[in-house]
Design goal:
By secondary structure, the protein is mostly helical. The protein contains four helices and no strands. 76% of the residues lie in helices and 0% in strands.
């Protein structure tokens, strides 16, 4: 099951400010986190799914780059976001 449009709208509203603000850094990080959590749950039952493992690693790297950008631009927003999303750093 993919991340549905309702979940995306809720994430963009919570982290981007509105449903239409899909380009904000915080909203993109939240969406990547949701997808990463979904793929991690999938891989816990399907350990030999190598293509999904590769996708997960690439997605984690993209989220890391976005987090580094946010940390440079807005340190307090970065700290609030990782606490809200429960991302360990």
């Amino acid at each position: 099951m993919q991340v549905t449009s309702e979940v995306k709208r809720k994430l963009f509203k919570d982290f981007g400010g509105s449903e239409k603000n899909t380009g904000s850094t915080a909203a993109q990080i939240a969406l990547h986190t949701e997808r990463i959590n979904h793929l991690s749950n999938h891989l816990s039952t399907n350990k030999k799914d190598h293509s999904t493992t590769r996708s997960l690693i690439m997605m984690v790297g993209q989220r890391r780059r976005l987090l580094n950008y946010l940390m440079k631009k807005d340190l307090t927003g970065y700290r609030q976001l990782i606490e809200k999303l429960n991302i360990r750093k």
